[in-house]
Amino acid sequence: MTYLPKPKIHHPSLQRNRAGFIRRDYEGAISTLCAGCGHDSISAAIIQACWELDVQPHRVAKISGIGCSSKTPTYFLSASHGFNAVHGRMPSVLTGANLANRELMYLGISGDGDSASIGIGQFVHAIRRGVDMVYIVENNGVYGLTKGQFSATADAGSKSKKGAINNDAPIDMVGMALQLGASFVARGFSGDKAQLVPILKAAMSHKGASFVDVLSPCVAFNNHPGSTKSYDYVREHNHALCRMDFISKRDEITVDYPPGAVREVRQHDGSTLRLRKLPESHDTGDRVAAMNYLHECQARGEIVTGLLYVDPDAPDLHAHLETAPVAFNTLGEDELCPGAVRLESINAALR
Amino acid sequence: MQPTDIRKPDYFHKVVDCQWACPAHTQVPRYIRMIASGRYDDAYLLNWDSNVFPGILGRTCDRPCEPACRRGRVEENNGADVDKSRPEPVAICRLKRVAADNRSEDIEQRMRERLPDPVPGAERFRVACVGAGPSSLAVARDLAPLGYQVTVFEADAKGGGFMRTQVPRFRLPEHVIDEEVGYIFGLGVEFVGNRRIDSMRKLLDENYDAIFVGSGAPRGRDLHAPGRDEAAANIHLGIEWLASVYFGHVKSVGKRVIVLGGGNTAMDCCRSARRLGGDEVKVIVRSGYEEMKASPWEKEDAEHEGVKIINWLNPKSFVHENGKLTGMWFTPMRAEHDANGKRKLLPTGEPDRLIECDEVLIAVGQENAFPWIERDLGLEFDEWGLPKLDKLTLQSTNRKVFFGGDAAFGPKNIIWAVEHGHQAAASIHNLLQGEDVRQRPPPMTNLISQKMGIHEWSYDNDISVDERFVVPWAPKEKTLTNIHQEVELGFDVATAWKEAQRCLNCDVQTVFTKDICIECDACVDVCPMDCISFTTDGDEAELRERLTAPALNLAQDLYIGGPVKTGRVMAKDEDVCLHCGLCAERCPTGAWDMRKFLFAESYAGRGEDYSAKPAHKKVAA
Ligand SMILES: Cc1cc2nc3c(=O)[nH]c(=O)nc-3n(C[C@H](O)[C@H](O)[C@H](O)COP(=O)(O)OP(=O)(O)OC[C@H]3O[C@@H](n4cnc5c(N)ncnc54)[C@H](O)[C@@H]3O)c2cc1C
Ligand SMILES: Cc1ncc(C[n+]2csc(CCOP(=O)(O)OP(=O)(O)O)c2C)c(N)n1
Ligand code: SF4
Ligand code: SF4
Ligand code: SF4
Ligand SMILES: [Mg+2]
Fold first, then answer.
1. Could you state, in order of their start, the residue ranges of all structural domains in chain A?
2. What distance in Å separates the CA atoms of residue B252 and residue A214, rounded to the nearest whole number?
3. In order of start, what are the domains of chain B with their CATH numbers?
4. Spelled out in words, what is the top-level CATH class assigned to the domain A23-321?
5. Nearest ligand 4 atom, CA B529
6. Which of A185, A236, A327, B368 gives A101 a disulfide partner, CB atoms 3.0 to 4.6 angstroms apart?
7. What residues of B are in contact with residue A40 (Cβ under 8 Å)?
8. pLDDT at B31
């Protein structure tokens, strides 16, 4: 952490995006996390992705639970809406907000403790309902904020800083998200922004439940030999499934690739995901194949990163519920309170 | 790329843009910190050590440090209204004056305490300096404390050279010159005023062990055009006229004055003329406004005082009525660039213009002249009439004779004259000690961590976002009616403190240790200026393009550290680093550290054990 706020002065070459902002405009308060925490790099990746996507900060809501990871929304997008929910309750608050105003972009920021322990029930249901959001788990295998107890994502056999061995089986949230029907599933690493930023941009452009698990070493409590969530361990065992370029609707597609070298997925909003070095055998549109691949890698002791699965045309919660096509705050009193006569007819229909 | 070898003194010295640009390598950020903490004597003495005339230079220096100052680059496209940002360097020069203005009465006592120890036997050697300008005075300042017998011969009654006779009093009050020249004479230097040396042969015959020629570039260039001789009574050479103003021979000037030329002398002429009765003063320049040799601030100051600067007019002839000057004809000019990019001035073809006037001051350049140096002494001159010198030692082809200041390479400025003085003194010391004249003791360098605690540094790393503060001026009614009234009043202490906060402490270096970096990216993410990248190695040109922010200022180095564990390199662009230390605060392993880099040029007789000399021991960081 740092006492001084980051000086407002920025590099003279910083450009304004189409929304009229420079990258620094997407920052928040100076982080109070431990120096070197992976979570800060994820914040930096979110800032970069939002700038590149010309996001209007006031059209974003950042919602989080409790934990070091859940504190991070303070450190980015200071001009956006935010809600710091109780521990593990980010998904339900986000779902409610999304139902009321479907026009904002929702960033659900959580940790492995927040989402895989106390909040696992909430996580499960938000995903299976297909809430239109980017659900980011900043995964360090510990409860960082409470000083490093193993979390539910800690691998069996991994060692705590004090030397204790974890005997419980881990929850793999990527596997769960796939199984629960998330329409965009990816994994990143805080130490690889070249990979993480395009993943976040793709997830932010995706309509439906996007789940991104980001390995994010806890320098204070889980960055030692014997940990499977340390910078060194993740780097040594990282298996990048493919390299992805995010091409927005506006960008010209210029580079020609030999056939077979890339595969492209066109998303609902017109953006394109270009997948390079994707193994022949893998199809990002095949949920079962993605689950198999995940488990194969796990069996080999590898941590697979990259985009595992995407369904570009998935319906979301609003489609399921056939809700109003606009945000509630754009509706008038008449529409929101249609009156006694209408209530009477609804009641009659239920008799 | 090769990892950067930060042990080479030049690497970090270059990062301290101001110090690197200063001919005398004054330790600028260090003295600015001293001013900020109210240590005016220390700041004054640190300056005095390098540039000998802090009070004079704090008012008149050409300040090559300021265009070099990183603050000017950092403020580009920044500020409250980005699109109207006016990047400005730190007011380095005017802060120097603050140290001088606030030094204590007994500064001379403190100066003596910090002088280097005498060199045993030095008193056997006699050194003569010709002229008492800044270069000779710097030679005397460096050599006298070592014990050498130094005699300074000066044609005028008092010492100071052009600082006294050319620089007008409204820019530099005489008491400032008296004090700072006095400190040098007080070191046991023999001053012989009113004594023009008219023969080098005779001087050599007096068996001095070394002679330093600091006689300046005393001749003003004339403009030979029709009417020049007929109207001579109202036409003057700028530097002669300024000297006459100083000596009181000239007390007034015609109402309408034309000053020819676009350099600093022209600016002093026009501003002096405004004070001596010139109501309509025009500076007329052959070329464009931007290309004028005068410093931007001098042009501004002149215009502020109602001087009109007219560009693109070439003087053609003087008009007179029976010898009384009435005006001048000018030909309108334009610039043209030939295929090699060389600029030529050509008439535009528009009709010539007549500009009426009562008096003309010609300030179109200065020349060297050495009529008093016989040409058969083995002392050779080149085709431009300048002495043939070793550029490092300033030794002429007569091994006992050295040159410096404007006499060495033509007209420059005070700070260059001082630096020449240092170099000549070092050469003379070597010569007299029987050492190789070309040998230079290495500079004193030091690199010390500033870490005091997790977020504590022993320097103030909070970055001020203030714009440059303006030095207050005496009111125009006062300054334009009294040529002795100083225009600039200097910063008060409170404003000086605020201005000092704008300094980025560029001598507090970011030092990277590759072996303990865990590549967490914390430094990359926190750096407000996007200086740091971890990336695959490449050759410099290509690497510069693909860093976190492109490194397009080729004058600034890339600091390469690594390879780090993943095989990548750390590349830091030094260009716009704020030296804020946030990278080091954020680094979990201490792979970045902020270390204060000290670079002190070594002067005559202050060699390897430089730091042990009292002069430096007694000045804390
Ligand atoms: C109008 C004007 C304004 C200037 N303003 C500035 C300014 O604001 N800032 C700046 O940095 N520079 C300024 N300069 C330049 C600066 O004054 C000179 O570069 C500097 O003074 C040169 O120093 P020097 O040591 O070569 O000797 P000089 O200052 O040139 O002095 C030479 C001395 O030698 C004496 N001398 C010459 N021949 C003999 C002899 N044979 N025997 C005995 N004595 C002799 C002369 O009388 C003179 O006193 C200005 C110059 C001019 C003309
Ligand atoms: C209801 C409730 N139970 C327990 C806690 C204590 N607590 C605070 S943070 C935390 C775990 C956070 O872990 P994680 O989400 O992984 O965040 P990290 O700090 O690792 O980023 C716990 C258990 C709490 N704040 N509230
Ligand atoms: S305790 Fe761990 S997770 Fe929390 S801020 Fe520190 S390094 Fe990051
Ligand atoms: S000191 Fe460090 S953080 Fe600050 S600008 Fe320089 S490189 Fe960036
Ligand atoms: S913060 Fe330190 S450990 Fe992390 S990448 Fe930078 S230098 Fe390396
Ligand atoms: Mg955690």
1. 23-321
2. 81
3. 124-218+368-441 (3.50.50.60), 220-365 (3.50.50.60), 446-619 (no CATH)
4. alpha beta
5. 5
6. A327
7. 522, 525-526, 586
8. 98
